[in-house]
């Protein structure tokens, strides 16, 4: 009888694991989607100020105006020089905010801030352009637009950048500010999910542990190499717990459609096809941080 019960238990666990693995992949509150903010990344902080000013400069109307400008040029039409000058000034303003933001990221001891930097760097490299090169290209493009508005000769491209590769990857949608182009702020889970005390307790524990980890991460820069690696291990554990929780919620049809749609919009803004692409990008950024931590150990 004991063996029979054990076989049934193993079979149930295997079946449950199979169901979890077959649940649709969703974005979870990790990485830039984490709702818990360190002091450096909180609303009203330095980072939020730079992002707000950058977002207000390269808002949807800016993207529409740039698309219209490119279409006019492709059709052989002469763009309005005044409008081109205005767009170039907005682009330079966004570039200035971007450079200031990247500078703060590089000097920060906060884990969330460094995670943003690593993700932005990996996203830029995946499009064939390094993070520093991306900034140079934006400034060069703005200066070319200003030269057109003045009727003067445009400047030469930045030295050392493969312009053929840049042109080949110009349609990927990644660039300055794309990580902040869309936000996921819809309620992810149906309230009925928490009618179960077990589920509610698990969720509250996960929220509590994740928030505590973010607070601890404010001192990440002061950790030695081993401490940084141990912290990244704890981040992996939290991510796995969220994956399991959301997979169970999905099987119970407790994930709200509005949340799923916002997730899809966010991934499109990043130029990613699905949540696996987002997780790959996040994993690459954490791998980059691990390499940095390993280097400190030597």
Summarize the structure.
The protein has 298 residues and is an all-alpha fold. The chain has helices spanning 2-22, 46-57, 60-74, 81-107, 111-126, 131-150, 163-168, 197-216, 225-251, 257-269, 275-297. It folds into 2 domains: 46-162; 182-297, no CATH class.
Keywords:
disordered N terminus; mainly alpha; 67% helix; 2 domains; 11 helices; 298 residues; globular
Structure, described:
It is a single chain. By secondary structure, the chain is mostly helical. The protein folds into 2 domains: 46-162; 182-297, no CATH class. It contains 11 helices and no strands. The chain is globular, with a radius of gyration of 23 Å. The termini are far apart. 22% of the residues are buried.
Number of helices: 11
Question: How many domains is the backbone divided into?
Answer: 2
**Integer-rounded radius of gyration:** 23 Å
User: Into which percent range does the helicity of residues fall?
Assistant: 55-70%
For the secondary structure, the number of strands is 0
pLDDT average, as an integer?
82
SSE arrangement, N to C: HHHHHHHHHHH
Classification by helices and strands: mainly alpha
